[in-house]
User: Fold this.
Amino acid sequence: MADGKGTPHPLTEPGVWIERIGERVFPRHLPALFLDRDGTINVDTDYPSDPAEIELRPQMLPAIAAANRVGIPVVVVTNQSGIARGYFGWSAFAAVNGRVLELLGDQGVSVDMVLACAYHEAGVGPLAVADHPMRKPNPGMLIEAGKRLDLDLQRSLIVGDKLADMRAGKRAGLAQGWLVDGEAAVQPGFAIRRLQDGDDVVGLITAIETLGRDYRC
Assistant:
């Protein structure tokens, strides 16, 4: 599907971007590391639309590296209501996302799939959709990635900077997530771990490495 300028983008519908990154082949039924993008992988500059302004948050790098090392897919799931609101288009998203991937590559780490949802109730035109199933806190992006990569969602992990990320994880059947600069909480069937300091990062890395050992057993 293309934008108004004829540029092809991996859109499965007007407000959903699904892109497979790289060519790594994974065994069936692996868990995944799901990551929000803005505010989790990179600094959130309030509707990021300029690649030159993108800056990585360094605390996520060792977690992504751990997932790469143990062979667990890394999947980005990001809401992009700025597109629905008309602040920028999919071409700007593509440029920013490309810059994020480039900066990650410069640090020797990589992601395997990117999913983005642009639908929002305050949007315009076909993107003006309230409570779209792909928009977090709904679990659609995680479930779609699970289908495409044949993932074990129950053992997968999610990291994000908003409670919507945690709710999406819970609704997709995950058992736990890490909340950037948030507080720990235990809910029925889902545990929220905090991700604030170095000890918390170590805990996340340990959880990722444990998943890697488990699937090899």
